[in-house]
């Protein structure tokens, strides 16, 4: 096994940490803005849907380009653009200007940028990982968001203290600028590029590459099963997460015994989920799961998470906190097994198209789940909505993932 901490791996890890610090803060802030200005679960869900809507189209069409052109240039270009956009939002909020349709348009742009960035990042990242270190590398990757999410309680305090999200977006603009500067220093020579010696990348070549990417996924039954299941689990998770914060805001009497406002309480409880993800990442970095047991471990994780999410809002507060923590650990286990296996399995020259198709399909599932959850949130209690979504996820485990186990094992049960 070679050294994981190469120069390029250090650069992309530092750049990602910096940008995620700002992203975690801004994502939390804009959600609260919408709820505070509108007071509507449906409009809150609509905001989330509009943010994720471009992730259906952008990754799918970006994938063929990522298999022909520079992924690292796309990464730092998107971060420079994001920095400028968050600076603009800062000035709007600093001047106390708010317009729901206008901010909806800004969120649409942000979602498009994030959709393109994600395909470029996921396609480049495996090439910066030294041989035999995929599991360790993705363990580190899985710890970045939990580390960044430690900023959310700080963001909540600043938002409640100042009554404005402007300082949070200023912080976000600076972090994206610093991340972009770091990412320009990546020295990896991208071997998948057309350097003028190959076939010209015409419209017909693009269409052919696009079709080839879809055909590749359809031909690989294991990848198709994994993608189908994660589309459904993203649908269920999107639906459940959409009504989580509204549940706390709409049911303060359930937590009247706690000397905190419900938003702060929610951020503290969520922190234990984040802490669980951090612990899960550390476990994966230190220990390797038995190669031949990865699929059964993943299946157990999928089932346990589903059952806990279905009932955790009925638990007393200490058990609710414990549930969030366990789901955090298991969520990283699911992420690490799936992404390290698929990214090492898919050839580099097809990785952009696979990642684009995978993200498109999962984003579509998440958007439908968020929108449906927002509609149901107007007429049903939040806990019942979550149970419905988790029941559907359990059916996907039973009727999709388990019957396709032999195909999935060929991808999961490998040494990476």
UniProtKB/TrEMBL annotation:
4Fe-4S: present as a keyword of the record?
no
Checking Pfam families in the record gives: MFS_1
Q: May I ask which residue range the UniProt record assigns to the signal sequence? A: none
Q: What is its main location?
A: membrane
Compartment(s) where it occurs, according to its Swiss-Prot or TrEMBL record: Cell membrane
Key words, A-Z: Cell membrane, Membrane, Transmembrane, Transmembrane helix, Transport
Lineage: superkingdom: Bacteria
Q: Which InterPro entries match?
A: MFS, MFS_dom, MFS_trans_sf
Q: Where are the transmembrane segments?
A: 12-35, 41-62, 74-94, 100-121, 142-159, 165-182, 223-248, 254-275, 295-315, 321-339, 360-379, 385-404
**What's the protein's topology in the membrane?**
Multi-pass membrane protein
**Listed GO CC annotations:** plasma membrane
Q: Indicate the segments forming the Major facilitator superfamily (MFS) profile domain, all copies.
A: 222-416
Query: What's one GO MF term for it?
Result: transmembrane transporter activity
Q: Transmembrane: is it a keyword of this entry?
A: yes
- What is the protein's given name? MFS transporter
Q: What is the lineage of its organism?
A: Bacteria, Bacillati, Bacillota, Clostridia, Eubacteriales
